[in-house]
Queue: 3 jobs
Job 1
Amino acid sequence: MSAIGTHHRRDPSDPSRDLYDPRVSAIADRLLELGLVLPPPMSAPPGVVLPFSPVIVRGDRALVSGHGPQEPDGSLARPLGKVGVDLTAEQGYHAARLTGLGILGSLERAIGDLDQITGWTRVFGMVNAAPGFVSLPGVINGFSDLIIEVFGAEVGAHTRSAVGLAELPFSIPVEIECEVEVR
């Protein structure tokens, strides 16, 4: 059986048999096992220039710029708008999960292999919240649950803030920035 921290995958012809493959990272294997696909870089809306890097690595830290939810083709995921009026809390949770996949894609492009992540340290989750919507932590749980599901509790555990804002860029429902430790 496949496990985090190993480079094994199940033999498709015999699921009870493990195959060692040093070319496959444990995290890539885990994403495959979960049926998750990382999107390509975000496609900015027409006429928009984003003059910053999605990830900057400094020493043993990778700082991740704010990301929003993405479709598998890199475009902004729908629906857009405010959680609590245009989206339900459950749709916001799903948007936070999609945001996590986009962040993982950016990290993979920046550091080459998600197994280089030794710890998630800080997560700042922002929700495009309707007035009176206060279930902000439940929305950002979509991101936290994904990270712990993929990396396990030891590496995936992180500190976190979840705040509601009056507006987010392009009317995205969720924006998340974070910091991870890398080897």
Job 2
Amino acid sequence: MKYSGLHQFSQPGKQLLIISATLIFSICSDQYTKLIAKKYLTNQELISNNSSIINFSYVENSTGFLGILNGLPEYIQFFLLNICVALLLLYCLYYLFFLKSRTILHASALALLTGGGISNLVDRIINDGKVVDFIQLGTGSLKTGIFNLADIYILAGSFLFGFLILSADSQ
């Protein structure tokens, strides 16, 4: 069965509204949770819920998602995390607002990914190259790295966008 829920935007105003709302939601919700984390988690021990599946710990990350660029020289980290990311995000915004040949789901997925990227880039700009991370999932010795809502938006948008591209190719 082929996926057929990929309808083109028929109204430019609706397109702009969905894209803008998704961008604003993802940026504002991520920045708000980072402010809360900074206020309540700074200088605190790891905070766990009763089941220890969701843990909170304040970390300022300067090496990318889950420390992926750890060990690289600082100038390369700066170039990749600031210059390359900013150029990619500018292209994503151009694509979202000026290219009209996408579906509602494609635009929503890309807007979610882009909003998360913008929020993390804003963090890097205002926090001297660091992004506030505070969420960790897992229990015992099986735990994820520490991340934030923007990372969730980036991953969710990426997976959805990839799924939509692959499902369109299979039709």
Job 3
Amino acid sequence: MKILKKIGAVLINNLWLKILAVAIAFVVWMIAAQINNPVSTHTFSNVRVTLLGTDVLENEGKVYQILNSSDVVKVTVRAPESVISTITAADISAVADLSQITEDGTVPIVYTLDRAESITSDRNELQVLVEEKKTKYVNIYYEMVGSVGEGCVAGRVNLERNRIEVSGPKSAVDRVSYAQVTIDLDGAVKTISADMEVILYDADDHKIDSENIVKQTDYVTTTVTVLSTKTVPIYASVTGEPAAGYIYPDDIEVYPGIITIAGDTSVLNSISRIDITDPDDIGGKDGNVFASYDIEKYLPAGVSVEEQGFDGEVTVIAYIEKIGEKSINLSESRINLLNIPEGYTADIIEDGPIVVKLSGLSAELNAISSESLIGTAEITANNSENIYIDGEVLILAVKFNLSEHVNAEPVYIRVLLTADTGEDADTDGDT
């Protein structure tokens, strides 16, 4: 018992010395720990803030917009080096609950990292703009840039859809005027089909880059038909006969007379001309006849007109002229006698000049004179045995070298056939 009391007295009398010894040992341990595993700091940039409570806003028909990129923060962590070396940005929890948004549009950001002695950030609040959610449809247009290959033309453009739904904050959606895809032709010689990016534009044709606007789709399948081209003439025709005393001299004008068409190469190869199959009716007309036609009606399927500034209307003019008349006195020397039988002499026996009455186009009549007109009369046998009688007078029809649009009234001449006596031959022999 005495021994225990003695030991207790020793412990009590040296307590402060023992406490001091423990404290010194702790300090020494801390110094040793700091030397072997010192505390340091490390800064992590681009730490993304996790948002909570977004469903609350959605249920209220509202959307939010993070302002000033305040959902990306820079965080500094203080911890022993052995811990710092194992920490990544993904280990840092930065959370903002949108249900706690204040009237001035701020939301506190809460940072946690269990292994850190402390954690600080360059931003403690999230800046949020909350707006009414709006959805609307806008039209999708297309723009073509570049040129197709030589001898080709861009044909029909087909978009998978021509409208797109956009939604987001009302202020942002209200700016959207239309959507557009850009098609790069880039020397194409065959049909183009690809998914084209849909870009939003405002009313001033400025591109809208807003992450807060959600598009129904980011791409639209777009097809551009690339066609070959060919230049071909247009032909027209007439039906009927003009009024009495008038003539249609096969003079028809088509304007434009030549057009460029576009279509698949295999189809164009079979086309050399375009015929207007509805003839221009000149029946009973005494003047030029005008008619208009839509040339598209006469093009084969899959072929279209490719002519700048041409609306497809073709004008056809059929020219009608009044028949002119003219009389020419023709000498016997201007008529050639054909098929004079052997042993006979043929002579034209007329009391005066041979009168030829002509009718037809005035321009062509004016070009005919007694010096240019030539007639021919053909002698034919008066029976099947080709027997001719000396002193016989033949009545022969005269034909003239006239153009298609000039006619002559029938002209007949009398021709005297005289048998050769042979006296000239005997005389020549005596000589």
